[in-house]
Amino acid sequence: MGIVSFFSGLADPLLSLGYLLYLLGWDAGLHLSNYILPKKQPGAVIAKGVGGHGGKWGEFRPPGPDDARSPCPAINALANHELGEAVGATYNLSPTLCIQVPWLTAKFLFAGRDWEGKMTLDDLNAHGAIEHDASYTRADIKWQPNQGVPDVDIIRGLYETAGFDMDKLKPTDTFKLEHFSKYLAYRRAHSKVFNNQYIMNRNGKTFGCANSAIAFDVFGGNAADLKTWFIEERMPDGWEPRNLTRNGFTIARLNTLYVSPSTSRPHPVAPVRSTGGTSDPHYLSLNQSYVLMPILTGFSKSSEAFRAREI
């Protein structure tokens, strides 16, 4: 039994590595061809027959008390429009990214569990796997046990970081990736100070930073559209992905998005409360800088699409 377990344990990472190399090779081809092939035309980014074609999203049905939701706005928004099976086509994500993310997710969530089981939206709320502390749309699980719903105060902090009035957005208000980087660094530093149960493992860093990059690119940084998506978890009326590439947003594209300069938060920063949102007279003074750095996405729990590094 010991020998069988040894070889079984050895086979999984080797097979995973082989599959990852195949996936990255395929993705490289898709990414390069995006520079050659003509872009999709506005109004036809989403194919006919797929929900959201032409900006028509159908009926919006917010979740009821018995409906499960995940910590991910992208998945929840599609579930609220009953479009859960069309994630890649809806957001114009490459087939390789749409394979990699569920694959890694399943490996994290089903470690030691029966692979025959079906994954539900509620499974994604398992703490420390996909769901993580210091999110820019949720308070930490210590204060918000239900991670399936957004926290408006937390989201407002992102808009304040960018210098936007979330209640009076201008058509020209557009996020930069640096805004996400600054706010993620701030959220992590804040949680370290106020949350005595704070956990930030490599999975949390991976998904927190990768989700920021994907949301930024798919929405083109549009602050008004992102507000609808973040808070209501609804697809904006008439919206379609801003990424017009023929093969969609690739793994390679994900790994090229980064913020090179250090991002410092002045002290004291915006008021925060111990529950993670704004409005209480707690101030966090930071004399630290953070950099968002790209790294090749791997197959194991040690992989990160981006790493937030304190310097």
UniProtKB/TrEMBL annotation:
Cofactor dependency: heme b
A Pfam family the protein falls into: Peroxidase_2
InterPro entries (UniProt xref): Chloroperoxidase, Chloroperoxidase-like_sf
Domain Heme haloperoxidase family profile residue range list: 56-256
Superkingdom as given in the UniProt entry: Eukaryota
Keywords linked to the UniProt accession: Heme, Iron, Metal-binding, Oxidoreductase, Peroxidase
Molecular function as annotated in GO: metal ion binding; peroxidase activity
Family per similarity comment: Belongs to the chloroperoxidase family.
Name listed for the protein in its UniProt record: Peroxidase, family 2
Taxonomy of the source species: Eukaryota, Fungi, Dikarya, Basidiomycota, Agaricomycotina
